[in-house]
Automatic annotation (TrEMBL):
It comes from the Bacteria. InterPro entries: Pept_tRNA_hydro, Pept_tRNA_hydro_CS, Pept_tRNA_hydro_sf. It holds the Pfam family Pept_tRNA_hydro. Its EC number is 3.1.1.29. The record marks 16 as: Discriminates between blocked and unblocked aminoacyl-tRNA. This is Peptidyl-tRNA hydrolase. It comes from Nocardioides marmotae. The keyword Transport does not apply. It catalyses: an N-acyl-L-alpha-aminoacyl-tRNA + H2O = an N-acyl-L-amino acid + a tRNA + H(+). The lineage of its organism: Bacteria, Bacillati, Actinomycetota, Actinomycetes, Propionibacteriales. It is found in: Cytoplasm. TRNA binds at residues 21, 77, 79, 125. Hydrolyzes ribosome-free peptidyl-tRNAs (with 1 or more amino acids incorporated), which drop off the ribosome during protein synthesis, or as a result of ribosome stalling. Catalyzes the release of premature peptidyl moieties from peptidyl-tRNA molecules trapped in stalled 50S ribosomal subunits, and thus maintains levels of free tRNAs and 50S ribosomes. Its main location: cytoplasm. Keywords: Cytoplasm, Hydrolase, RNA-binding, tRNA-binding.
Amino acid sequence: MTDTANPVWLVVGLGNPGPSYAGHRHNIGYLVTDELARRMGSPFRAHKSGRADVVEGRFGSPGSAQARVVLARPRCYMNEVGGPVKALATFYKVPPERIVAIHDELDIPFDTMRAKLGGGDNGHNGLKSMRSSLGTGEFHRLRVGIGRPPGRQEVADFVLSNYSAAERKVLPFQVDTAADAVECLVLEGLERTQQKFNS
């Protein structure tokens, strides 16, 4: 992937590895990158760094504008994702402004999302780790809403729990829309994505 005229984007799905975490709200980033990989027609494979699984390919249809993309799922817990992301960014020569982190967001309702560039980590351990390792927060984020925990449930318990039965009926549509938003961000830019997808 050394075509300098068409630089690479790194799209990172944040989550925790392993089947016990697969259905958790904290793993929405994994679900969206799974959908993007399905659209690209390629399975995730271990990267030579040994710290992430990746898919290399393109967004966009043949004959139209295309973008070279690396989808990544770090093989570590959320609070350690910065190291693998930094290693991949260095390997593929991707600057922070061409990195997209897909993550769960407590402060917006379930089934809504917002794209943005930069900002703080808002208590999110994955973003905190990325900011620390990259030395900047100036990367793109797709914030996929999960809403606030009901009643007095602790935030940590809420994000590390499965979606409700009602939410699971809607979740495939949310994942599909989030994947659309990531493709739009890479192909058409942040402003267009915010106009189309920011709830």
